[in-house]
Specification:
52% helix; 129 residues
């Protein structure tokens, strides 16, 4: 777990099984499709919504692990990312990459802020925050 400055305060960020579960449930996908989507994020080919949701999942996972309430939505996370201090996205992406790339497992492409900056915008029609 790492701590990141987002939403005006230090928040725990943990991307493990629980965060992957949160992301998969939100997107109604299984673990194999998660791997495919994570690879897209690593290559800079994900939607802005997928990037926001993966950050939300890590923040939610960190909050729950720390015994804190999840007092934010993915919509809040999107707003916070508009004003993210320099270096915080890289810190979160490194934590995600480290948790997904475990020894003996096929490594997924590393997501970096430069790759993520090229993500595509997604159309949101009627999607709840």
């Amino acid at each position: 777990m790492v701590f990141v400055t987002i939403g005006g305060k230090q928040r725990p960020f943990k991307f493990g099984f629980n965060a992957i579960d949160i992301f998969c449930r939100e997107h109604n996908i299984g673990i194999s499709e998660f791997g495919e989507r994570f690879a897209k994020i690593g290559k800079g080919n994900a939607t802005i919504g997928e990037l926001r949701d993966i950050i939300f999942a890590g923040l939610a996972g960190g909050a729950l692990t720390s015994g804190e309430q999840i007092d934010f939505t993915s919509f809040h996370v999107g707003d916070w990312m508009d004003e993210l201090p320099q270096g915080e996205l890289a810190k979160m992406m490194e934590a995600i990459t480290q948790s997904v790339n475990v020894p003996g497992k096929k490594k997924l492409p590393q997501a970096t802020p430069a790759k993520v900056a090229g993500t595509k915008k997604e159309k949101v029609v009627g999607k709840r925050p």
